[in-house]
């Protein structure tokens, strides 16, 4: 099934069930009001949501309405924990290659801000263009309750929902040359999520080995930045990421873990590494330009730029809906000058 959260003026929004084709939706009123409520009592509530989903997909839901991603918050608007992984090692390898041998390897997981996520169409508000604004396109999993020391297999069984993620990065505030892909907490101000959360069984053959298989499309100002296979380059699957999170402590229902930026490994051609399918973030493209030409040519995101992230399955249909953002200065505040 597919689930979303509609804006209703509260911090946690209202849970809705969405049809498989993302065309219609139905409020989950009477089953669960909020996404976290469903996660806290998943064994009891999920079957009821599944029944509503089947009714909706068969066109028999009496109070269905057209689904509108612009009315969506993040599927889980806030969470007790959000950890970002380094599931695509080729991304970190490329950044370290661009920065030089002194750059350290990326940690498997780092904590991100989880007290308020961005919806799929919310603007990304930054006070300064000089903060080197980037958005890392990736995927995320929402966990059920996991015990401390859960194995990767146990953790994989605990995956409740899968999400499309756009993790906002401010590289000028966090990158110091020693940690190539991760910086200070101030450098991770927000994460956006696609409009729809999807249960693993909804993906069919697109869910294999703890990985989401599909083509992740990233476009900046309408121009293609990336067209990456989300499953092929994922060296660490969601079960392993969640097991790492649960290594020393229990994980509570609603905790999220992300993959970090999706990346395809490049091919060696005529002495140069070619990346024919593009990148999941600006930093990856700038690193490749540095490796090949000695310096980056692509600029960071600026006010007024637009970014679109979408994953399509083997049938060519959108799986999670699209993240569709604009970069904007804060309203009513004096922007910080670029430095």
> What portion of residues belong to β-strands?
25-35%
What's the CATH H-level superfamily name of the largest domain? Fumarylacetoacetase-like, C-terminal domain
Percent of residues in helices: 10-25%
Low confidence ranges? 176-183
Arithmetic mean of pLDDT: 88
- Give helix and strand order, one letter per element, not per position: EEEHHEEHEEEHEHEEEEEEHEEEHEE
Rg result:
19 Å
Number of strands: 20
Provide the CATH topology of the largest domain. Fumarylacetoacetate hydrolase, domain 2
Backbone structural class: alpha+beta
CATH architecture call of the largest domain: Alpha-Beta Complex
Major sheet: 6 strands, mixed
CA(first)-CA(last) distance: 47 Å
Strand order of the largest sheet: 6-5-16-8-9-10
CATH class of the largest domain: Alpha Beta
Instruction: Count up the domains.
Output: 2
Query: Counting H and I runs of at least 4 residues, what is the number of helices?
Result: 7
Shape descriptor: globular
Question: Topology of this structure?
Answer:
Elements: E1 2-6, E2 14-18, E3 24-27, H1 35-40, H2 42-57, E4 65-66, E5 82-85, H3 89-99, E6 109-111, E7 124-125, E8 133-143, H4 152-157, E9 159-170, H5 171-174, E10 191-193, E11 197-198, E12 207-208, E13 211-212, E14 215-220, E15 223-229, H6 238-245, E16 256-258, E17 267-269, E18 272-274, H7 282-293, E19 306-312, E20 323-328
Parallel strand pairs: 5-16, 7-20
Antiparallel strand pairs: 1-2, 1-11, 2-3, 3-4, 5-6, 8-9, 8-16, 9-10, 12-13, 14-15, 14-19, 17-18, 19-20
Helix pairs in contact: 3-7
């Amino acid at each position: 099934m597919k689930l979303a959260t509609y804006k209703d003026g509260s911090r946690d929004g209202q849970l809705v069930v969405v049809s498989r084709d993302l065309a219609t939706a139905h409020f989950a009123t009477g089953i669960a009001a909020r996404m976290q409520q469903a996660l806290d009592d998943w064994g009891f509530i999920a079957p009821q949501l599944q029944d509503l989903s089947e009714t909706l997909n068969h066109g028999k839901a009496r109070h269905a309405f057209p689904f509108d991603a612009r009315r969506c918050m993040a599927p889980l608007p806030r969470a007790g924990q959000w950890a970002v992984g380094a599931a695509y090692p080729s991304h970190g390898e490329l950044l370290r290659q661009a920065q030089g041998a002194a750059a350290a390897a990326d940690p498997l997981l780092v904590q991100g801000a989880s007290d308020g996520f961005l919806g799929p169409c919310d603007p990304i508000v930054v006070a300064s263009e000089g903060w080197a604004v980037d958005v890392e396109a990736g995927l995320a999993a929402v966990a059920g309750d996991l015990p401390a020391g859960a194995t990767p297999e146990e953790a994989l069984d605990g995956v409740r929902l899968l999400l499309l993620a756009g993790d906002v990065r401010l590289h000028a505030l966090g990158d110091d040359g020693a940690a190539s892909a991760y910086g200070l907490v101030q450098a991770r101000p927000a994460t956006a999520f696609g409009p729809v959360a999807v249960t693993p069984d909804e993906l069919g053959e697109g869910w294999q080995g703890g990985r989401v298989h599909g083509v992740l499309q990233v476009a900046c100002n309408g121009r293609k930045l990336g067209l990456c296979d989300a499953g092929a380059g994922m060296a660490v699957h969601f079960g392993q990421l969640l097991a790492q999170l649960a290594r020393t402590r229990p994980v509570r229902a609603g905790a999220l873990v992300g993959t970090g930026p999706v990346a395809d490994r490049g091919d060696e051609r005529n002495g140069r590494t070619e990346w024919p399918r593009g990148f999941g973030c600006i930093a990856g493209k700038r690193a490749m330009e540095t490796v090949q030409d000695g310096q980056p040519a692509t600029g960071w995101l600026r006010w007024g730029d637009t970014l679109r992230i979408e994953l399509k399955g083997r049938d060519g249909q959108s799986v999670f809906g699209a993240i569709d953002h604009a970069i904007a200065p804060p309203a009513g505040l004096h922007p910080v000058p670029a430095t």
